[in-house]
Amino acid sequence: MSAATKDKLLEGALRTLVEQGIAKASARTIAATAGVGQGLIFYHFGSVDELLAAACRYGAEQRVDRYRDRLAGLGSLAELVEFARAMHAEEREAGHVAMLGQLLAAGQSSPALAAATAAGLGLWIEELEEVLTRLLAATPLDGFADPAGLARATAASFVGIELYEAVDPQGADSAFDALEQLAGLAAVLEGLGPLSQRAVRHGLRRGTRG
Predict the structure, then answer these.
(1) pTM
(2) Which residue numbers delimit the HTH tetR-type domain (predicted)?
Protein backbone atom coordinates (compact mmCIF):
# COMPACT_ATOMS: atom_id res chain seq x y z
CA MET A 1 0.00 0.00 0.00
CA SER A 2 2.84 2.41 0.80
CA ALA A 3 4.52 1.88 -2.59
CA ALA A 4 1.19 2.17 -4.39
CA THR A 5 0.40 5.41 -2.58
CA LYS A 6 3.79 6.89 -3.44
CA ASP A 7 3.27 5.99 -7.10
CA LYS A 8 -0.15 7.66 -7.01
CA LEU A 9 1.41 10.80 -5.58
CA LEU A 10 4.21 10.82 -8.17
CA GLU A 11 1.74 10.34 -11.01
CA GLY A 12 -0.55 12.97 -9.48
CA ALA A 13 2.29 15.46 -9.25
CA LEU A 14 3.28 14.88 -12.89
CA ARG A 15 -0.31 15.22 -14.07
CA THR A 16 -0.69 18.44 -12.08
CA LEU A 17 2.48 19.88 -13.61
CA VAL A 18 1.40 18.98 -17.14
CA GLU A 19 -2.27 19.94 -16.86
CA GLN A 20 -2.18 22.93 -14.49
CA GLY A 21 1.42 24.13 -14.31
CA ILE A 22 3.85 24.42 -11.44
CA ALA A 23 2.10 27.51 -10.03
CA LYS A 24 -0.94 25.34 -9.25
CA ALA A 25 1.08 22.43 -7.85
CA SER A 26 -0.05 22.75 -4.24
CA ALA A 27 -0.53 19.94 -1.74
CA ARG A 28 -4.30 20.23 -2.13
CA THR A 29 -4.23 20.15 -5.95
CA ILE A 30 -1.78 17.25 -6.17
CA ALA A 31 -3.63 15.23 -3.56
CA ALA A 32 -6.93 15.78 -5.38
CA THR A 33 -5.38 14.72 -8.68
CA ALA A 34 -3.87 11.63 -7.06
CA GLY A 35 -7.07 10.81 -5.20
CA VAL A 36 -5.43 10.68 -1.76
CA GLY A 37 -5.30 12.82 1.38
CA GLN A 38 -2.95 15.80 1.58
CA GLY A 39 -1.26 14.45 4.69
CA LEU A 40 0.20 11.56 2.71
CA ILE A 41 2.35 13.99 0.72
CA PHE A 42 4.14 15.09 3.88
CA TYR A 43 4.23 11.57 5.29
CA HIS A 44 5.95 10.11 2.23
CA PHE A 45 7.96 13.06 0.91
CA GLY A 46 8.19 15.68 3.66
CA SER A 47 7.19 18.65 1.48
CA VAL A 48 5.59 19.55 -1.83
CA ASP A 49 8.98 20.55 -3.26
CA GLU A 50 10.47 17.17 -2.37
CA LEU A 51 7.48 15.44 -4.00
CA LEU A 52 7.90 17.53 -7.15
CA ALA A 53 11.62 16.72 -7.20
CA ALA A 54 10.91 13.00 -6.86
CA ALA A 55 8.24 13.26 -9.57
CA CYS A 56 10.72 14.98 -11.86
CA ARG A 57 13.19 12.10 -11.50
CA TYR A 58 10.39 9.54 -11.79
CA GLY A 59 9.05 11.18 -14.95
CA ALA A 60 12.50 11.32 -16.55
CA GLU A 61 13.03 7.61 -15.90
CA GLN A 62 9.69 6.87 -17.56
CA ARG A 63 10.49 8.98 -20.63
CA VAL A 64 13.95 7.49 -21.08
CA ASP A 65 12.51 3.97 -20.77
CA ARG A 66 9.91 4.86 -23.39
CA TYR A 67 12.55 5.79 -25.98
CA ARG A 68 15.44 3.47 -25.07
CA ASP A 69 14.69 0.77 -27.66
CA ARG A 70 14.28 3.36 -30.41
CA LEU A 71 17.60 4.94 -29.49
CA ALA A 72 19.30 1.55 -29.54
CA GLY A 73 17.98 0.94 -33.06
CA LEU A 74 19.42 4.13 -34.59
CA GLY A 75 22.00 3.47 -37.27
CA SER A 76 23.35 6.92 -38.14
CA LEU A 77 23.64 10.49 -36.92
CA ALA A 78 21.00 11.49 -39.47
CA GLU A 79 18.61 9.00 -37.90
CA LEU A 80 19.43 10.45 -34.47
CA VAL A 81 18.40 13.94 -35.61
CA GLU A 82 15.24 12.56 -37.23
CA PHE A 83 14.44 10.77 -33.98
CA ALA A 84 15.06 13.97 -31.97
CA ARG A 85 12.60 15.89 -34.15
CA ALA A 86 9.93 13.19 -33.80
CA MET A 87 10.50 12.86 -30.05
CA HIS A 88 10.28 16.62 -29.64
CA ALA A 89 6.87 16.63 -31.35
CA GLU A 90 5.65 13.75 -29.16
CA GLU A 91 6.87 15.35 -25.95
CA ARG A 92 5.39 18.72 -26.87
CA GLU A 93 2.01 17.12 -27.60
CA ALA A 94 2.11 15.33 -24.24
CA GLY A 95 2.83 18.60 -22.42
CA HIS A 96 6.30 17.57 -21.25
CA VAL A 97 8.09 20.35 -23.14
CA ALA A 98 6.15 23.03 -21.29
CA MET A 99 6.67 21.17 -18.01
CA LEU A 100 10.44 21.09 -18.52
CA GLY A 101 10.47 24.83 -19.11
CA GLN A 102 8.61 25.41 -15.86
CA LEU A 103 10.92 23.08 -13.91
CA LEU A 104 13.99 24.86 -15.28
CA ALA A 105 12.56 28.20 -14.23
CA ALA A 106 11.49 26.94 -10.79
CA GLY A 107 14.90 25.38 -10.26
CA GLN A 108 16.41 28.88 -10.11
CA SER A 109 14.89 29.32 -6.64
CA SER A 110 14.52 25.69 -5.50
CA PRO A 111 17.72 23.65 -5.01
CA ALA A 112 15.67 20.44 -4.76
CA LEU A 113 13.99 21.02 -8.11
CA ALA A 114 17.25 22.16 -9.69
CA ALA A 115 19.01 18.95 -8.58
CA ALA A 116 16.10 16.77 -9.72
CA THR A 117 15.89 18.46 -13.12
CA ALA A 118 19.64 18.07 -13.59
CA ALA A 119 19.40 14.41 -12.61
CA GLY A 120 16.60 13.89 -15.12
CA LEU A 121 18.65 15.49 -17.87
CA GLY A 122 21.58 13.33 -16.75
CA LEU A 123 19.58 10.20 -17.61
CA TRP A 124 19.13 11.49 -21.15
CA ILE A 125 22.82 12.39 -21.39
CA GLU A 126 23.83 8.85 -20.42
CA GLU A 127 21.64 7.40 -23.17
CA LEU A 128 22.88 9.92 -25.75
CA GLU A 129 26.53 9.28 -24.88
CA GLU A 130 26.05 5.56 -25.48
CA VAL A 131 24.35 6.19 -28.83
CA LEU A 132 26.90 8.77 -29.98
CA THR A 133 29.82 6.53 -29.02
CA ARG A 134 28.37 3.78 -31.21
CA LEU A 135 27.46 6.01 -34.15
CA LEU A 136 30.70 8.01 -34.22
CA ALA A 137 32.71 4.79 -34.33
CA ALA A 138 31.61 4.37 -37.96
CA THR A 139 32.91 7.81 -39.03
CA PRO A 140 36.33 9.46 -39.41
CA LEU A 141 35.35 11.56 -36.38
CA ASP A 142 35.88 8.56 -34.10
CA GLY A 143 38.58 9.45 -31.60
CA PHE A 144 38.32 13.20 -32.32
CA ALA A 145 34.79 14.00 -31.18
CA ASP A 146 34.11 13.53 -27.47
CA PRO A 147 30.85 11.54 -27.09
CA ALA A 148 30.37 12.67 -23.47
CA GLY A 149 30.77 16.34 -24.36
CA LEU A 150 28.61 15.97 -27.46
CA ALA A 151 25.90 14.27 -25.40
CA ARG A 152 25.79 17.24 -23.04
CA ALA A 153 25.84 19.72 -25.93
CA THR A 154 23.03 17.80 -27.63
CA ALA A 155 20.92 17.76 -24.45
CA ALA A 156 21.55 21.48 -23.92
CA SER A 157 20.61 22.20 -27.56
CA PHE A 158 17.43 20.19 -27.22
CA VAL A 159 16.42 22.06 -24.07
CA GLY A 160 17.23 25.36 -25.76
CA ILE A 161 15.13 24.48 -28.80
CA GLU A 162 12.24 23.47 -26.55
CA LEU A 163 12.30 26.82 -24.77
CA TYR A 164 12.98 28.79 -27.94
CA GLU A 165 10.00 27.22 -29.69
CA ALA A 166 7.60 28.93 -27.29
CA VAL A 167 8.53 32.34 -28.71
CA ASP A 168 9.70 31.43 -32.24
CA PRO A 169 8.38 28.09 -33.61
CA GLN A 170 9.81 28.74 -37.07
CA GLY A 171 13.24 29.48 -35.61
CA ALA A 172 13.15 26.24 -33.62
CA ASP A 173 12.29 24.33 -36.78
CA SER A 174 15.22 26.00 -38.55
CA ALA A 175 17.50 24.85 -35.74
CA PHE A 176 16.46 21.24 -36.37
CA ASP A 177 17.10 21.77 -40.09
CA ALA A 178 20.63 22.95 -39.30
CA LEU A 179 21.26 19.86 -37.17
CA GLU A 180 20.05 17.70 -40.06
CA GLN A 181 22.54 19.42 -42.35
CA LEU A 182 25.38 18.61 -39.94
CA ALA A 183 24.17 15.01 -39.76
CA GLY A 184 24.19 14.92 -43.57
CA LEU A 185 27.81 16.06 -43.55
CA ALA A 186 28.65 13.26 -41.11
CA ALA A 187 26.92 10.79 -43.45
CA VAL A 188 29.13 11.97 -46.32
CA LEU A 189 32.23 11.41 -44.19
CA GLU A 190 30.96 7.97 -43.21
CA GLY A 191 30.52 7.05 -46.88
CA LEU A 192 34.09 7.91 -47.83
CA GLY A 193 36.45 5.12 -48.83
CA PRO A 194 39.30 3.97 -46.57
CA LEU A 195 41.90 6.24 -48.19
CA SER A 196 39.67 9.31 -48.00
CA GLN A 197 38.77 8.57 -44.40
CA ARG A 198 42.46 8.23 -43.60
CA ALA A 199 43.09 11.64 -45.18
CA VAL A 200 40.30 13.19 -43.13
CA ARG A 201 41.72 11.70 -39.93
CA HIS A 202 45.17 12.99 -40.85
CA GLY A 203 43.75 16.48 -41.36
CA LEU A 204 41.91 16.30 -38.05
CA ARG A 205 45.09 15.27 -36.25
CA ARG A 206 46.98 18.20 -37.72
CA GLY A 207 44.20 20.58 -36.80
CA THR A 208 44.08 19.20 -33.26
CA ARG A 209 47.80 19.61 -32.79
CA GLY A 210 47.58 23.18 -34.03
Answers:
(1) 0.77
(2) 3-63
